[in-house]
Amino acid sequence: MNGRSSPHQSRFERVDDWLTRTTGLWRPRPFVQLPAPWEDDLPELSAGLRALELEEACFLEENPSVLARRVPAAAPLVERNRGLSDWPSLEGSPGLELPKHPPRFVPQRKWRQISAFVRVLQGQAPSGVETWVDWCAGKGHLGRTLASVSRARALGVEKRRRLCDSGRELAEREGVPMDFRCADVLTGSFDDVLGPSAAAVALHACGELHVALMRSVVARRARFVAVAPCCYQRIGGAYYEPLSRAAKESRLRLHRHDLRLACLQEVVAGQGERRLRKRAEAYRLSFELLTREAGDGPVESFGRLPRSFFRLPFSLFAARAAEQAGVRLPHGWDAEAVERAGWERLRVATSLGIVRGLFRRAIESWLLLDRALFLEEHGYRAHVGAFCEKSVTPRNLMLSATLI
Ligand SMILES: C[S@@+](CC[C@H](N)C(=O)[O-])C[C@H]1O[C@@H](n2cnc3c(N)ncnc32)[C@H](O)[C@@H]1O
Q1: Mutational pocket test of ligand 1: of 159, 186, 208, 227, the residue with most ligand atoms within 8 Å of the beta carbon
Q2: Cβ(223)–Cβ(395) under 8 Å?
Q3: I need a labelling partner for 249 at 20 to 30 A (CA). Which of 268, 270, 293, 356 fits?
Q4: Radius of gyration over alpha carbons of the chain, in Å?
Q5: Are the CB atoms for 13 and 3 separated by under 8 Å?
């Protein structure tokens, strides 16, 4: 199908129009810029969100339908975004039985993702496939599962030799026909493996990695490709390079920060982990306020700090972070007051940030539709949908395409 006449084209146009008209709502980052620039124009929304406690704001971030009731001024945004970014659940192959428990060495959550992915693939992949190419395969759990339930063999392409070796060992132990090619997908050539009898799959290969796959697939006319993208922000430059004609013609120019928004979701993090992350954010904001006071210019980023730092009382944390950043703290500073101010800033930034979050899935949809249209322009029939529940992985959208 030609991209110009497909349902993906009209859907892309709607999402694109919406995102282009609302950049003032989703582009500014309240964690960096307070007050948010839209607050004067939308005073009711601003007041409703600013009144939230931190815990409630964190809950509402992930539960937009409750948000629409709690802060009615947000309801139109919730509705519009939902309408544009809901995707159907993809049907799995009914006859395929996969064990409920993961095989040895496969983590439980990964297994749930893989079994859902494989079930959908089995229902979609065309006949005549001889090789499953598992792109950025890690230890090749996906490719190994595919090879074990089909007649085709698998080839894992993976950069890290240690993972390739473990993957080979696992395949041998299970008697599954799978080999590995230890290579960098951004620089290597894969012409020999992505021919017309290959089906290429990529589960959670980051931004430019799965884009490299799609480019190779269309160049080599591989029969089938399926990707569940993640980390869209991992790209070579600061700005996103659109793939399809429609996205190239769009006025929307996405910065890496915008792409990051598409992947900000913490459904899979446990309570303890979430608490620690919030504390880390509060400490960072407090530290920024503190160093701003010191007059040397605020320290907004001090690179990666050990997680253990964030378990310390704030006064100790600040001393360690200052040492690491090479800055001096103001004389006689009040740790309690600074920490309180940091938590308050976190509360307000989180509450106002809910607005940005409402656009997450629309941005993800825009990016996925760009990919779907690119494949359609090159003679593929594309499908987009959810291959599993969001609770299994927030990156639960799959794009698959078959050469017509
Ligand atoms: C998020 S993991 C996904 C692994 C696997 N597909 C899965 O779902 O379990 C991404 C994998 O890509 C590999 N990778 C990263 N950059 C790569 C590159 N340039 N070429 C090949 N593999 C790469 C990493 O080593 C890692 O195993």
Answers
A1: 159
A2: no
A3: 356
A4: 23
A5: no
Instruction: List Cα–Cα distances, 241 to 155, 188, 313, in angstroms.
Output: 29, 21, 44
Cβ neighbours around 98 below 10 Å, total: 18
Instruction: In whole angstroms, give the CA distance from residue 224 to residue 219.
Output: 13
Q: Which CATH number fits domain 108-262+360-403: 3.90.700.10, 3.40.50.150, 3.40.50.2300, 3.90.550.10?
A: 3.40.50.150
CA distance 268 to 271: 10
> Are 167 and 137 in contact, with CB atoms under 8 Å apart?
yes
One digit per residue, pLDDT tens: the chain, 404 residues?
A: 554 578 999 999 999 999 999 999 999 999 989 999 999 999 999 999 999 999 999 999 989 999 999 999 999 999 999 999 899 999 887 777 787 888 888 999 999 999 999 999 988 888 889 999 999 999 999 999 999 999 899 999 999 999 999 999 999 999 999 999 999 999 988 999 998 999 999 999 999 999 999 999 999 999 999 999 999 999 999 999 999 999 999 999 999 999 999 887 655 567 888 889 899 999 999 998 888 866 666 555 666 788 889 999 999 999 999 888 888 888 889 999 999 999 999 999 999 999 999 999 999 999 999 999 999 999 999 999 999 998 899 999 999 999 99
188 alpha carbon – ligand 1 mean position (Å): 14
- Domain ranges within the chain, ordered by starting residue: 108-262+360-403
Burial bucket for residue 296 (CB in 10 Å: 0-12, 13-18, 19+): middle
Query: In the chain, what's the furthest Cα-to-Cα distance?
Result: 74
Query: DSSP of 97-148, one letter per residue?
Result: ---SSPPTT--HHHHHHHHHHHHHHHHHSPTT--EEEEET-TTTHHHHHHHH
**Spacing, Cα 158 to ligand 1 middle (Å):** 6
Supply the residue whose CA is at minimum distance from atom 8 of ligand 1. Answer: 203
Residues near 286 by beta carbon (within 8 Å), at least 6 away in sequence: 314, 318, 338, 339, 341, 342, 343, 345
Cα separation of 192 and 190, whole Å? 5
Residue to mutate (ligand 1; options 136, 164, 234; most atoms within 8 A of CB)? 136
| DSSP state at residue 90 | P
On whether the CB atoms of residues 118 and 147 are closer than 8 A, the answer is: no
Element (H, E) at 206: strand 198-206
